[in-house]
Amino acid sequence: MITQFVENLPQGMSTPDFTRKPIALTIQEGKTAIFRSIVTGNPSPNVTWTRSKGDLSDGDRFKIIYETISGEYQLQMPDVGVDQAGTYKCFAENEYGKAVVTATLNIIEGKRSTTSLFNSIRENVADFKNLLKTGERQKEDRLPGEPDEHFWELLLSADRKDYERICAEYGVTDFRWMLKKLNEKKREREEEQAQFVEHLSNLKPIEIKTPGCAEFEFEMELKDQNSRIFLYKVQKSLFALNHSLKQIGRKFVFSVKDLDPEDAGLYQVDVEGVNVFSTDFKIPSVDFLVKIQEVKAIEREDAVFECVLSNPMPQITWLGKNVPLQQGEKHDITVSEDKLIHRLVVKDCLQLDKGIYTAVVGIKSCNAWLVVEADNDPSTHGKKKARKTTQAGGGGADLAKIAAEQNAKIQKAREEMLEKMRQERAEMVAAMAENGEEAVAEAVTANQDAVRPSVLLCSPDPGVHFTRGLEDVKAIIGCTAELICKLSKENIDGVWYKDGEELSSSEDVSLVRDGAFHKLVIRNCKEEDSGKYRFEADGRKTEAMLTVEDPPRINPDDLAKFSEPVIIKTGQNASFQLSFVGQEPLKIQWYNEDEEVLIDNHVRIEKSSTQSRLILTKCVRKQSGEIKIKIKNVFGTIEATTKLTVLDKPTPPQNPVEIVEASSHCVEIKWRAPKDNGGSPIINYNLERQQLGRNTWKKIGMIPGIPHYKDTDVDHGRKYCYRIRAVTAEGTSEVMETDDIQAGTKAYPGPPSAPKVVSAFKDCINLSWTPPANTGGTNIVGYNLEKRKRGSNLWGPVNPPEEPIKAKQVAVKDVVEGIEYEFRVSAINFSGAGEPSPPSEFVFARDPKMRPNFTDRKLKTFLVIRAGNSARVNINFVASPLPTITWLKDGMAVSKRVTISNTEGSSQLLIPSSERLDTGVYSIVVSNLVGQETCSIEIRVTDDPKPPGPVELEQNVPGTVTLSWTPSPDEKRDDRLHYMVAKRDSVKQTWRTVADHLYNNKFTVANILPGREFLFRVYAKNDMGVSEPTESNKWEVFILTLPESKNCKFEAAPSFLLPLKKHSNPPGYECYMSCAVKGDPAPHITWYRDNVSLNTNTNYYISNTCGVCSLLILRVGPKDTGEYKVVAESPLGRAECSTTLTVRGKHAHMIYL
Questions:
Q1: Cis before residue 1066, ω within 30 degrees of 0?
Q2: Cβ distance 32 to 79 under 8 Å?
Q3: Residue 1113 to residue 1122: CA distance in whole angstroms
Q4: What gap in Å lies between CA 826 and CA 749, rounded to an integer?
Q5: In terms of DSSP bridges, do strands 495-498 and 46-51 run parallel, antiparallel, or are they unpaired?
């Protein structure tokens, strides 16, 4: 810090300043500690030293020296002690100002030797952890609200891509301030390190390499090889059996073995008290809910290992035989969207892949075996096994369910934590508003973590910053490359740099600004364009590397020419040539059917930096196939393929020869075409025939290229042999000779396989079999089937001999229920029936076991019965074996009045003369050895209701009459009984229903007009019908004297007194909609459905009586669903009212008996 005493400095004069500041020291007790500083200023300043914990008056312990040669001011402390640790300040002052710099001295206690430490460890292993901590670093004082010193130490050793994560962990949001402060600390750190370190690079943060072991490493070259290296963990030095630091050349590797939660923390490496590397080791609080399981896979099949974690992790470490595995062609590592399920797929398993595979997360691990079994498929013996598409292992839906449950728990805990933080923040903000900044300082002092939200609220505006930084770009030479970044604000100018040199627009370089986006476009990229590019704006900068690559490339015209197929004849030469470009060195390989072509007597390969040529001499047929060239350099690989066809004569036709017919008048044969036609289609077949016993061959001649021939020039009983050759444009194949074939001799077929029982029932047994391997030289024309009962020696035919069975399966219906049978079958060819097959297994003629199941799809579940009538319920079912049937009424056994009749497949419940006490829920339970099924039916027994008692009238409100009546005698016995009220007045003389579905004994009738007589009737109703009415006395006639009326105008625009209501009806039922409208003159009414007029639609009944508008749909269907609207129009205006009709599913049926 520099303080200037005067406002304007005289010319040539300056305030004091430090060109070299004293640095913090961490040193072993008993060594010499030296603080050095170099100051400038005119006039020369006076330099003094002070100490925070005492004075420097002891000349033996504190020596202040000035070296005139180097201009250094030194504070030396020989044989330093623990009590000298603390903060030291250096002051430089002249008449124009004062400069102050602070440095910290940390002392490591050195009272115990290494030997005594090891001895104490051996003597008392229980106190092992305490013995590891032998020293402690001095912590610097910091102001409230400032980030922890660990924050800066981590940033100084971290990559730029990790800055955002570290800032988020420590609650720092002012990135502009952070970067400025970090640059200052970097300069200070570099100055400190320059004293002892010559080179420092490749800083790799700590991470778990193998189960139970974590490592971090860096490369460092010291100026003095005798400089001491100290290891710290959270300000404390390390010395333990499970910690080790080894040096391999310039590489230093630090490892922690036998990990436990106490090993988490900040690890630091110091050289003579100067920090060179810091890394934070975090052990996640996570465990395995489901561990990986052993997997058994067949060769060329994929193996899947899956595990479920207790907390989300973006990735875990997979090991195969203690070797870390990476995503690639051999291994596929994936993680679920919720980051709980982690999967490793070992592709194309081979024998060398078997072993132990391990999943590691934090300090937890689990392992399992991968067992690779040989593929014993006989069809693949001697061949290269094909890749299988199946997978072995994996947890499937069970793991997904476990992960979903765990994710729900995590989300719930997270919401509870966020809610708690919101409450704490609200309380803190309220305290700040009440007490001001002093309260914030007190809160910071009391609990730094808790006050961090309030500190964030007070952070200054971060200003311009990058919302999207530059990213490394790889470009192909000669193409265009773009580097793009985005600022938080628009219209901000910036500067582009390449390797530290400022860039400007040119013919091949364009600097583009589009709002907040800044773009650097480099056209026709060259090798010299590679380098580090930086963009700076408003003190912020972002960097990225541009790598100009020169991978192998092929001209499209040359590739098209190369891809054209090459067709030659056997013995000729084939040449393939392809030109390309790419950076050397280039690796060029040629392949024939995926096998690399190597130079030999018949193969010559020519290579250069721009082309390669493959020459195949004296080609043979087996060289036909795909020819591929692969060109590779450090930047990539490219491939090109073509086709080589070598023409040759075909191979011989293939055995076996199928004898279609060998009768007394002809021999008809078929054979298979050659395995290889030599690259040309088969034109003809050349046939010869020899009769057994003769030495000559008769030439039959050429036949068309169909592998089939019918020879009619044969003698009955003689044997013939045929020679067959295939003919193509390239020549004639070698001969294929048939076996001897006899014309017309009987040859019976061999026995078929034993019949297999497909299914068995009480009246039918289904059988199937396979045909015989030996057909006797002719086709199989049918089969004879025989049966035999257990214990009998007599076989009986199933089918008549003159009606052989054509198919290879049959349904035998001539069986007796409960009898056990066995069957055998014989094949029939042109010669006759052959030997019978072995007998089948014994099988009973009975139905298979079946769980009871009710077959009535439209079973009535509610019945209403008139008292005195009979009630009958029929239930149909299927079950095998025969089930036990039980009827229950309301969960209890039915009474003796109920008759139960059971038959095979049905049961009947009969109540001859039903009474009201028979009402209830009747259940049938059908059970057998396989299971049971239950069905319930509600039966309600009732009768015509009896009329209610006397009706009394009472007027409580003018214009209304309240009716009350004595309940019907059936009300207590019938819970569905209700009442209906009808009214008649002296003017209309007709009865009109005013209320229905009343379940009480009182009702108030409105609209009782003066001057009229009224009569009322009350009916009792239930599921059977309506009772006789109970009529009230006449209501008296009232005379009302009205005042003289005055003329008034009643004209009014249309309006709705009662709107339409929503309706939801089942299909097949009627729907009645109504509304009330008023208006003078009377408005014209129009009904609409989905804006289509219904007034002329005969499917709808529309009426308008005294302003009550009604619409009736007799049978509602799905097409009636929609919006219904009523429009009332008159010269004075227009009014609308709408509703919706929904057609829902069917309800249970109700029948009346």
A1: no
A2: yes
A3: 13
A4: 9
A5: unpaired
Helix (H) / strand (E) containing 596: strand 595-596
**pLDDT beyond 60 at 1125:** yes
Rounded-to-10 torsion of CA 413, 416, 422, 425: -70
Q: Measuring CA to CA, which residue among 965, 951, 855 is closest to residue 905?
A: 855
User: Phi then psi for 209, rounded to 5 degrees?
Assistant: -90, -50
Q: Locate tokens 């001295």: which residue? A: 105
Find out whether 344 and 305 touch, Cβ atoms under 8 Å. Answer: yes
Residue 844 neighbours by CB distance under 10 Å: 15
At 406, phi and psi to the nearest 5? -65, -40
Residue scoring higher pLDDT (771 or 778): 771
> Cα–Cα distance between 475 and 58 in angstroms, integer?
67
pLDDT confidence of residue 565 = 92
> Cis peptide before 43, with omega less than 30 degrees from 0?
yes
First to last CA, the chain: 108
Contacts of 1082 (CB under 8 A, 6+ apart): 1107, 1130
Residues forming a β-bridge with 577: 613
Span 585-636, pLDDT tens digits? 889 999 998 889 888 888 999 988 889 999 999 999 888 899 999 999 888 8
Beta partners for residue 908, in sequence order: 874, 901
> What are the tokens at 742?
């006899």
pLDDT tens-digit readout, 848-858: 888 999 988 88
Q: How far apart are CA 641 and CA 592, in angstroms?
A: 10
Phi-psi region of 5 (alpha: psi -120 to 50; beta: other; left: phi over 0): alpha
For 415, the token pair is 């919401």
- Of 623, 592, 628, 626, whose CA–CA distance to 612 is shortest? 628
As a whole number of angstroms, the distance between CA 909 and CA 887 comes to: 8
Q: Which of 173-177, 545-549, 623-627, 694-698 has the lowest mean pLDDT?
A: 173-177
**Do 106 and 77 contact (CB within 8 A), yes or no?**
no
Distance CA 252, CA 276 (A): 12
Amino acid at 774: N
d(CA 643, CA 592): 10
The Cα-based distances of 841 to 247, 718, 790, 844 in angstroms read: 79, 43, 11, 10
Please provide residue 327's backbone torsions phi and psi, each rounded to the nearest 5 degrees. Answer: -65, 130
Q: What H or E segment, with its residue span, contains residue 662?
A: strand 654-662
Taking only Cα atoms into account, the Rg of the chain, rounded to an integer number of angstroms, comes to 52
For residue 114, pLDDT over 70 is answered with no
Flag the least confident range among 298-307, 380-389, 1033-1042: 1033-1042
Interatomic CA distance for residues 75 and 59, integer angstroms: 11
Burial string for 225-240 (b: 16+ CB within 10 Å, else e) reads eeebebbbbebebbbb
Task: Report DSSP letters for 705-760, one per residue.
Answer: SSSEEEE----TT-EEEEEEEEEETTEEPPPEEPPPEESS--------PPPEEEEE
Q: Mean pLDDT lowest for which of 217-231, 296-310, 761-775?
A: 217-231
Question: Which amino acid appears at position 199 of this protein?
Answer: H
Contact 944, 990 (CB under 8 A): no
Pairing of strands 611-616, 667-672: unpaired
- Using left for φ > 0, alpha for ψ between -120 and 50, and beta otherwise, residue 1098 falls in alpha
> How far, in whole angstroms, is CA 945 from its chain's centroid?
65
d(CA 64, CA 48): 9
Q: How far apart are CA 628 and CA 612, in angstroms?
A: 12
Question: Could you write out the DSSP letters of every residue in 1024-1070?
Answer: S-B---EEPPPBPP---PPPPP------EEEEEEE----EEE-TTS-
How many whole angstroms separate alpha carbon 630 and alpha carbon 640? 7
* Omega before 836 within 30 of 0, i.e. cis: no
CA dist., res. 1073 & res. 1063, Å (int) = 8
